[in-house]
Amino acid sequence: MTNPRNEDPTSASAAPAGATAGSVSQLLSRITQALDRAIPLLWVRGEISGFKRAASGHAYFDLKDDRAQIACVLFRNRAALVPFALADGLAVECRVRVAIYEPRGQLQCIVEQVRAVGAGELYEAFLRLKARLTAEGLFDEARKRPLPAFPRSIGIITSREAAALADMLRVLRGRWPLARVILYPASVQGAAAPAELRAAVEVANVRAECDLLIIGRGGGSLEDLWAFNDEALVRAVAASRLPIVSAVGHETDFTLCDFAADLRAPTPSAAALLATPDASEIAARVSMLGERLARAQSRRLEQLAQRLDRAAARIASTQTLLAPWRERTFGLATRLARALARATERLRERHARLDARWHALVAHGGATRLAAERLARLEARMAVAARTVCDRPRQRLMRAADALALLDPDRVLERGYAVVFNAAGGVVSDAARVRPGDALRLRLARGEVPVVASDRPTPPAN
Question: What is the CATH number of domain 4-127?
Fold first, then answer.
């Protein structure tokens, strides 16, 4: 079997008959693997040339000396860790990994770290301390606290002469003039700076007169910002009971105080922005919420008015439905009264006839005990007949009342039936009069349901 490492896929003469040619991407992949094995991570010194930062945050430049140059790429996550601004002509030391940019087949260096020439030992000390404090959990996100939404008092730890102080005061006065600003002065550069900064943090915590602290200064070199990498100061910032915003240097500058603080701001002015709300935005939002509340109340009143109108319409519709039943009830009551009057009159006439016959018998001397007993029986029968005549109309009236209650439309609706109204409010009783798309209302026992006819109604079968 032929060893593929000894083959040249671009040479037809070197390949045996029937061998499959490799692709360009396979070739470059093998070259990349060979470079990874042959050239490990290493430091390279040179001068930056043609520096460009893409919209993605990645940086592209050439690293050159007086005899050669090579293309380099610094990805965004690594660029964020560079503690100074990169620019053309800057002498740097880069820790690189040699690779192939396969889309172009171009040799390039992927930059893992960048340090300024002459600052290598200082930066190495920074990295060692950062790694140790990170291992202790001093920079854990779980330790971070949110800033108060509406701070009443803001403390600033910086130099009285710092230009950053004027920038922060200007932003604070413009955005949130309600907050009281307290300055805890301290040196921000030099041998005495770490102790003074640490003392300012401790004094602010003892006094507890602020809702949050801003510690920072303007930009500078790694040596200028080194006070904010002091281990004792970093531990004091992490242990602070007051939330702290770190605003040291420019956006590309990073110190250990940035990692220990509750929030890092890219600049001192940005720290003032992050620490305060915008009073004008809050006023506008309050005004907007007031208008929304007024509109909501207006809509609610309109909805209640519409519900009242619908209830009134339903009451009127119920009165219309009950009118025929009310008339029928009145007619039945009238007929019952007349029947009772006629029955009473007939009983009165019969009683008069019996009374006349009794007196006639007495007058003719024919009243005997037998007649008296017959008369008593007749009177008893008459009483029974009178009760029967009176009870029957009463029972008929009660049955009519029960039948009328069963015909009560509300009772019918309680059994699951519905009354259909058209858009004009009329009762729909004939399906042939409904057209597709007609707006209808179904009145149920409780409430109404708007519906729309979707198909042509089918006439009832004969």
Answer: 2.40.50.140
